[in-house]
Amino acid sequence: MVKKYSYSKDKDKYLSKHFQVKEFRSYNDATKKLTTDEILIDDNLVTMLEKLYDKANSLYKIKSIVITSGYRNREFELSLAGGVLNSQHMQGKATDIIINKQDGKVIDPKLVCIMSEEIGFKGIGYGNGYTHVDVRDNKSYFDETNGKSKIDSFKTYFNLNITNENTNNNTNYKYKVGDKVIINGIYVSSDSNELLKPRITNGIITSIKNNARNPYLLNGGNIGWANDSVIVNNNNYLQNKNYMGTSLVDGLKEINIDSSFEYRQKLASTNGIINYKGTSEQNLKLLNLLKEGKLIKA
Predict the structure, then answer these.
(1) Per-residue model confidence as pLDDT tens digits over 51-83
(2) How many Å apart are CA 118 and CA 114, to the nearest integer?
(3) What is the pTM of this model?
(4) pLDDT tens, residue by residue, 230-270
(5) What's phi and psi for 266, nearest 5 deg?
(6) DSSP state of 108
(7) What domains are there in the chain, each with its CATH number?
(8) CA dihedral 186, 191, 193, 196 (to 10 degrees)
(9) DSSP strands (E only) in 153-242
(10) Residue 221 — left, alpha, or beta (φ > 0 → left; ψ -120 to 50 → alpha)?
């Protein structure tokens, strides 16, 4: 059931264990203002977000699910590039989200799409640094980065698979689920000792099997299994641990990374910074991640 709330009166009300009314507000990042006091929220959307929270937390030990866009009134929706008349956002049935892990990293939106599919969201959209989820009546999976629609399964689309082995309880391993890696060898099973030459030399760790000779499953098994000895580098993060300066631009240039405003915008979005304007506070956050080797590539 869709219910109406008032931001001024109900903003601090908890709808569930992890979500409050104010998180679903109709807010314009460009003007930094609410577009209406009214907020429409579907009860089922909150229920599904809680299911997603539990799913993600069981796999990754998360800190929060951040709603970057919730309800949108008609005027706000139609003012946006790509705004859709009578969109799921306008009906209070949709949110765009980012999931933050306890270690400060952001879960890859590809993995969020797959988790959302597994728990039963009807509407799922892969975005540039975020994931769209909604509780429409009929299934609709789409890729907002290239306009592709009618995706049957994100598991197949991204060539990934999530299993219950994807848990950060695997703290003794050098790499984690979601890491993009380059390999120079591969194994056909988690216990095989026969090293094969890989047909594909890069992939994403989609599962970690405890106490296995080759603990890392790559691309849901479509590449094979790997261990630390065959992973030649972790290609998921940018780092400049030796940089002692205070300029994000200089820190990126020093390691031959694009330092343009456009690329920094992409970095910001990928690392959970919304509405990047190049402020000193935003740049400092990105720079600190760069120095720590935790800046996720865009």
Answers:
(1) 999 999 888 888 999 999 999 999 999 998 777
(2) 6
(3) 0.58
(4) 886 656 678 787 788 899 999 898 888 889 999 999 999 88
(5) -65, -40
(6) P
(7) 2-157 (3.30.1380.10), 180-234 (no CATH), 237-296 (no CATH)
(8) -20
(9) 180-183, 202-208, 216-218, 224-226, 231-234, 237-238
(10) left
